[in-house]
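Q: Predict the bound structure with protoporphyrin IX containing FE.
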Amino acid sequence: MSYFSRLRAANIPWLYHFTVLSCSPFLLHISGIRTCLLLYMILTIALDAEEVLKAFQDPSEPPLIPHPYLPFLGHVIGMFWHGAKYFDIVNRKTQYPIFTLQTLNARTIGVISPQLAAPIQRASKSTSFYGMILEVTKRLVDFDEPSMKIIRWNLDDELGHHEGLMNESHDMVASVLSPGPILNQISSTQLEKFAELLNTMAPGSNLLSISLMDFVKRVFTIANAFTIYGPQNPFAMHPELVQKFWDYEAGMIKVMADIVPSITARKPWLARKAINAALQEFIEKEHYRSASPLIQKRVAINLKHGLTTQMAGHAELILLFGIIGNAVPTTFWFLANVYSNPDLLEQIRKETSQAVLCSRNSDKSRKEKVINVTKLKTMCPLLVSTYRETLRLIGNLASVRLVTNTHYISAPGHPSYLLKKGSMIQIAAGVIHTSESVWGADAKTFNPTRFISSTTSSEQFSSETDAGVTAEKTATQLPKNVPSAAYRAFGGGSVICPGRHFAQSEILGFVALCVNMFDVTDGNGGVIDLPEKDDGRIPLSVMKPVKEPQVVIKRREGEEDVIWRLEL
Ligand code: HEM
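A: Predicted complex:
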């Protein structure tokens, strides 16, 4: 199709333009014609520009969807207004597997098809994750320009080798958090810390009245800080920072907007200042020397490449967010899904009892129960499947990539698509996770058995530990016929979340411990209501609830004096 035919076919009111142009000389004076034509030109450019861009687009590019009322700005406002839901809104109208949105002077490519997501996340040589997130990170943690220069150096191997701070740090994090002895050691410390904290939270017949989210926040922040950052971590040295971290987390978008944040985002901005100061102290006083290998190596890399102690401290803020920012809301939803459904709770209690070992403590005065997390992964398919299903329905964080080299992608059943250098890609996890064509007619509903396979030979979900024990039913990575790129809770490709193995152990262990230790009810002793998901925010992590439920937590009857432990 020639450019001319494409222009003719575009959604442009040619008759209106022709009428205005041909009638204005007869209706207006010379000076009036000039003003009129000027106004007309501005209006035309403004209103039809995206249609013209669409007509001149390379036919192999993902089709451009012009905004119906407000070119250049309309889609940007839509994304801010509707958050991750915006791709769903656009997709419902167009049903394209991949499309382009003009966002100011840039192009955002929305990917709705998991078949096309697969080659995109594989093309790590022509796309960049860091190219998209570094500017956001700079604003989030308050990096200065000299640090950004160090961080940006050879970011995507553009100098032909794999050196540089980000490359070294990425490879180190991926290696330390991969299945193996270091990860096992970190996970074991974390599980022991969870048990130590929970044993003291609602002891004996005491009742703990608390917001369910605050309960998870408190335990996860203290335990993760201890496990990853060591006994002299900033939260142990300054306990008031636990609340401040979450004050910051709640206002990250406002801080990131960076419009006089000391006024427009005062609470999160002040909270960040306090945490950053404590992180700087953590580096300057060398408290990281007693932290996990992950932090010891990370700080060493950052200092070696020339970050100041202050900036090396700031750098930890983004990792802290990576460690607890997703794990906390995920655990909240996992608990909410289980405690709001008495049948599921009963089944999970029964199933996890297989992984509980009973004994007596050293002086034989109290009963001790130990939950083995390796057994949870291999013998408790319902627990594992509920975890994965929980993540499927709350994981709407788009995988973002910047196209660094113009290239084609292809996938079975689709034409080849041209992705041009400079375009920003967003693989729309939220849309893919709830697509009926991918997950079946019940795609939008919670089905805790979705990831259970009835065959004994199916792929085991547990990858990091010895999966010697097989159950009759096993939790599978994916239900039959669902392509692997359709499960996007942890992203995909070379930057797939390196913390996913750690997250799985800590979350399965924590939830199994809670269901075995506690009854969790609403204020009147009844079953808690499942809160509504807030899917209208710009997501930086998995979805949050619209309202955080208040709950009452107490030890299960007959179990009041048991000492609980978790082991890997
Ligand atoms: C349920 C919990 C978690 C979820 C849902 C989650 C999700 C994600 C997602 C979606 C990404 C982006 C990947 C992409 O765009 O392809 C990511 C990256 C990352 N996550 Fe996680 N995450 C979780 C827990 C953790 C934990 C516990 C850690 C650390 C111990 C961690 C460390 C990281 C890091 C360092 C990255 C950046 C990867 C890179 O630079 O290559 N995450 N995570």
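A: The domain at 327-395+442-567 is CATH 1.10.630.10 (Cytochrome p450).
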